[in-house]
Structures are given as structure tokens and as C-alpha cells.
Amino acid sequence: MGREHHARFPRTRVRLSAATGAAFLALLLTALAAVPAAAGGDGQRHRAVRAVRIHEQARERVDRLREADALPEAVEEAEERRKTVRADLWGLLRAGARETGDPVAVDPSGRAGHCPFGDRSRAPELRSSAWTAPTRRYWLSAGYAAKGSRWARRHTGQDFAVDSGTPVYAVGSGVVHVTTCGDGFGNQVLVRHRDGYFTQYAHLSRIDVRRGQRVAAGQRLGLSGASGNVTGPHLHFEVRITPYLGSQVPPLPWLRRKSVQVSGAPALPWPRGHRAVRAPAPGRNAPYAWSGR
Which residues make beta-bridge pairs with 237? Predict the structure, then answer.
């Protein structure tokens, strides 16, 4: 463990690393503040994009330190820097979400929106791994950052084309942070995981969990559908640093870090009402989409 390798990490080196890390954080936060919130929607968006990039750089640093079996103090310090960036991003996006009436900020339980809740689901009795894909028998459709007329800028998640009523599962254990409806994402669930990230499952036809409920990997969250701004049934899956839109990160690389491989090949014939098309090449976005968000 880290305490057994003091020779590789002498105290002077740890102190130097701490000082360097503090200076690095100050530089990053200065850069983040360089785009004023008063600049309006575009200013807030650019600030959020920069914060996401800074957060992911900080997270990569934490991962490298852990892989190198660094001293716990160095890892904890790097983790605190990551959390500081996330807190700034969280506050920025929460304020914007409240101003726009985003249900995630103003109705996180979904009670005011009268969301379609089903019976509470239970954790699966058998689990093959700690992480899993969010649904089964799917075809990958619109990819992360894809361009198209259906999105204000770029697609913010990964779409899984499935028939309406297909079970949707939590990709990992966590706590249900949001169950809401009423915007372009339709009926949606957001789960907060132990690593601090949130996963979003949108356009559901039914929600089978409640806010505050603990869920396990592979536990059913609801059923896929076509609620919200869509032109056909599918699951919209996102990974976010905060619960709010604007903090999303590429979902498939995130899943790969959890040892979850998502294939673009169909497991069954194309879902009813859709025509089959060639699966996107690895690392590329599909050339079409049904999602409105």
C-alpha cells in the first residue's frame, strides 16, 4: 500500500507535489472564473464547458495517483481539488436550472408533475458484475456530441434504440437523486453513484423507483418509451458531473472505465417501426437520431 513506499515518495516530494497541486488548482479556478456568469446564457455555457474539462483533468490526475500507489495524502488532496471544481460547476448550473424552471431543480421527486410511477422495483438477486449496460436488446443510435436539427447544439448523451416498454437498468449501485418529468427529456431518472457521477435515463414510459431509494447494478429503474421531445421510442443515457444539464461527459468511455463494453450491433431485429441501418464505427457518432435532447 502507499505507506509502504516512502522511499519512492520522499516527504520533500510530497510537499512539492502539494504545492504544485495548489498552484495548479488556483490557475484552473482563475481560468474558470475568466468567463463571467453575467455574460448571459453563452457565458454560462462556456464557463460550464470549461469547468467540465477542468474537472475531468482533475479526475484523471486522481486516477493516475491511485494507479501509482501514491501516498494517501496526495490522493486525498487531488480528490479535494476535483471536488472544488465540481462544487463550482454545481452551483453555476443549479442557479441556471432554477431560473429556467428545469424539473430537476424545482421538482426532483416528480410529484408536482404527476409522473407515471409504477411499483417499486427490487434489487436483482444475482449480479454478475458491479456495472452493467443500461438496457438490453438495443441498437446504438445517436451518439454523444452528434450534430443535428433536433438539438440546440449537440447531443448530450448516447441513445439506445429499443421498443417501448423495454426494461431500463441502473448501470451501477447508487441512490436515486431525481425522478421527474415535464421537459424535453420526458420521464427521467437520475442516479448518483459512489464515485460522485450521475447517470440519467430519459424518455421513459414508466418510473419504477423513487427519489432517495438505493439501487443496485442491474436493478430496473423503469421502462423505455417516447416521452418528452422525441420522434420514436428509445432510451437516452447520460453521464453527468452534477445532476444538471451542462455537466455531461462522454458516456461510452465512462462505461468502459467501469469495464462495461457497449456494442453497436443489434441483438435482435430492428425495433418495430424503425428501419435497420449500419452500426456506427467505434468512436464515431451515428449519422441519425430520434432524440430531441
Answer: 158, 201
Residues in the chain: 293
- A 10 A CB-CB count for 235 gives 27
Give pTM, 2 decimals.
0.79
In sequence order, which residues have a C-beta less than 8 Å from that of residue 243 and are 6 or more positions away? 104, 108, 177, 178, 190, 192, 198
Q: Contact at 8 Å (CB) between 138 and 235? A: yes
How far is it, in rounded angstroms, from Cα 252 to Cα 273?
26
* Cell 423505455 -> residue: 224
pLDDT in tens, 240-283: 999 999 999 999 999 999 999 887 654 444 344 443 333 333 33
Residue 80 C-alpha from the chain's centroid: 20
From the number of C-beta atoms within 10 Å of its C-beta (0-12, 13-18, 19+), residue 216 rates as middle
Distance separating alpha carbons of residues 152 and 135, to the nearest angstrom: 26
CA 83 to chain centre: 16
Name the residue type at position 35. V
> Distance between CA 164 and CA 237 in Å, rounded?
15
What residues contact 26, with CB distance under 8 A and at least 6 apart?
Answer: none
The predicted structure's pLDDT at residue 125: 83
The CA-based dihedral angle spanning residues 112, 113, 118, 122, taken in that order and rounded to the nearest 10 degrees: -70
From CA 51, how far away is CA 28, in angstroms rounded?
9
Which tops the pLDDT comparison, 7 or 273? 273
Strand bridging mode 198-207 / 214-215: unpaired
118 phi, psi to nearest 5 deg? -100, -170
Contact of 215 with 198, CB cutoff 8 Å:
no
Using CA atoms, how far apart are residues 28 and 47, in angstroms rounded to an integer?
12
Q: C-alpha 42: how far from its chain's center?
A: 22
